[in-house]
Amino acid sequence: MARYTFLMAMLLGSVGMLWAQKPDKDGYYTGSEVDESALGLGFSVSPYYSNRRLLSNTLNPGQAFQLVDNATDGQWGLGFGPELYIALSDRFEIVTGVQWGTAGFRYPRVELEDVILGLDSGFYSLTEEFQFVNVPIGLAFRSQLNDEWFLDVTPAIELSWLTKYDLIYEAGGVVQTSDALPLAEDFFSWLSLTIGGTYSPFETWGYAVRFGGRYMLNSLIQRSDYPREVLYTIGGSVGVQYRF
Fold first, then answer.
1. What are the CA-CA distances from residue 28 to residues 53, 85, 208, 215 (Å)?
2. 63 φ, ψ (degrees, to nearest 5)
3. I need a labelling partner for 95 at 20 to 30 A (CA). Which of 1, 191, 196, 242 fits?
4. Across-strand partners of 78?
């Protein structure tokens, strides 16, 4: 519960960073007066492809499995949640919010060398699945292309809290799931970059389409006897925006 309280406090606290300039007739901020249009809210849905990069292949004797090879199959993930936009000038704004996301990948073939989780020794596929809460903190560069279209480029750091981490072994119709959350770090972060456009046919409402990727900065399981893996995602998002 404390982590969610912290997330909401961070989101609400960012409103206190608000400062902006009064927009002229083209929507640019040229004066020094604060205007309500400097603040915006939105909601986005983000489908993406996720996979992992192996940093080291040290194995975990306690899990008693061997990687037949290092190849993995990626999986599709989904993120969604509200967004907050805080204009700093006519071209820059802070983008933050709270998102709920999923990710994962699959080893097609691992070898169990001992009896674990009630499974006999032998060959299995191993799927790793994750769920997390995500707080992006980005600085967006906005360029107005015409009366209705804006180009947005947003580098960001994203702070995430892991809420679920499952290891799923499967072979011959037998499926066994192990909870890996106790082994993992519950906090991790990403670097991300998105590029997209916002279509604003109305004065306040807009529709956003973005494409981008992100790369995890720290391994979820930071143990000397376990493979060190970081995730990456590539995908897009669609959303709606309302500017006050």
1. 42, 15, 19, 33
2. -90, -15
3. 1
4. 47
- Tally of CB atoms within 10 A around 156: 21
Q: Using CA atoms, how far apart are residues 97 and 14, in angstroms rounded to an integer?
A: 10
Residue 177 and residue 172: Cα distance in Å, rounded? 15
**Nearest residue to 94 (alpha-carbon basis) of 33, 194, 15:** 15
Residue 172 burial by Cβ neighbours in a 10 Å radius (0-12, 13-18, 19+)? exposed
By C-alpha distance, which of 11, 9, 186, 181 is closest to 99?
A: 11
Is the pTM of the predicted complex or chain greater than 0.90?
Answer: no
Classify residue 60 by burial, with Cβ atoms within 10 Å: 0-12, 13-18, 19+: middle
d(CA 31, CA 96): 25
Lookup result for tokens 């996301």: 101
Select from 110, 135, 129 the least CA-distant residue to 184: 129
164-216 pLDDT per residue, tens? 999 898 888 888 888 989 888 889 999 999 999 999 988 889 999 999 999 99
Backbone CA torsion sign across 204, 152, 150, 234: negative
Q: What percent of the chain has pLDDT over 70?
A: 76
Tell me the average pLDDT of the chain.
Answer: 82
> Which tokens go with 63?
């899990």
Cβ atoms within 10 A of the Cβ of 151, count?
Answer: 13
User: What pLDDT, on the 0 to 100 scale, is given for residue 19?
Assistant: 37
Structure tokens at 184: 């993992």
Q: Are 185 and 221 in contact (CB under 8 A)?
A: yes
DSSP state of 114: S
